[in-house]
């Protein structure tokens, strides 16, 4: 819990404990799937930071880190969703096993475009790990290879996810009180 932000929360959707249990399972899956291989884990800033940190320390492989900042013009609109790269990877990924680590798949524009763009760099493999999936909001076809939880069509914060850059440090995934948005 967080007493500074407590008053803004209407409901805890997923507790930190539940999330931790699921993150351990995903880490075990990744460890199994890439047995004997090295993996570049790419965290998408800033929303994936908490999930990324909890995940990587439990992946029992030769792991390297990189980070990207991206935004999708299409997110929240009906446009085709062009990808804007604000911070690119700091290394080539040719012949590497790459796992993109993202907070949530919502419309799908961001990950669909990011995946298409990174494929052109010829990685050995390219997969997506997303903590949350909101399938009811999807506008383009894209699926996570590792997904923590499916969530209903509600705006969620905490565990890295924000509303106007706030609430990222909440230890649980929460739904805010309606008054907070207005
Ligand atoms: P997309 O719509 O799949 O392209 O998702 C783009 C981004 O929107 C995600 O990476 C999140 O940062 C943000 N987002 C989507 N749904 C939520 C939510 O419920 N809470 C907080 N951020 C969200
Ligand atoms: Mg994000």
Q: What can be said about this structure in brief?
A:
This protein is an alpha/beta fold. The chain is 23% helix and 32% strand.
Q: Would you mind describing this structure in some detail?
A:
Helices cover 23% and strands 32% of the residues. It has 182 residues and is α/β, with parallel strands linked by helices. The strands form two sheets. It has a six-stranded mixed sheet. Strands 1-9-8 form a three-stranded antiparallel sheet. The radius of gyration is 16 Å and the shape is globular. The two termini are 24 Å apart. The mean pLDDT is 94. Residues 47, 72, 75, 102-110, 155-157, 161 line the site of inosinic acid.
Number of strands: 9
First-last Cα distance: 24 Å
Structural class: alpha/beta
Total helical segments: 4
Task: List unreliable stretches of 5+ residues.
Answer: none
How would you sum up the major sheet?
6 strands, mixed
């Amino acid at each position: 819990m967080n007493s500074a932000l407590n008053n803004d929360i209407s409901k805890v959707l997923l507790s930190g404990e539940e999330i931790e249990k699921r993150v351990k399972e995903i880490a075990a899956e990744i460890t199994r799937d890439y047995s004997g291989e090295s993996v570049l884990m790419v965290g998408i800033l800033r929303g994936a930071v908490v999930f990324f940190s909890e995940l990587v320390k439990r992946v029992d492989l030769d792991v390297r880190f990189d980070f990207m900042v991206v935004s999708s013009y299409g997110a929240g609109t009906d446009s085709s969703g062009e990808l804007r790269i604000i911070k690119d990877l700091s290394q080539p990924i040719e012949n590497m096993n790459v796992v993109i680590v993202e907070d949530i798949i919502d419309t799908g524009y961001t990950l669909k475009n990011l995946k298409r763009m990174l494929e052109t760099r010829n990685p050995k493999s390219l997969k997506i790990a997303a903590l949350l999936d909101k399938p009811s909001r999807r506008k383009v076809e894209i699926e996570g290879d590792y997904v923590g939880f499916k969530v209903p069509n509600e705006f969620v914060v905490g565990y890295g996810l924000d509303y106007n850059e706030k609430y990222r440090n909440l230890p649980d995934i929460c739904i805010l009180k309606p008054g907070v948005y207005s």
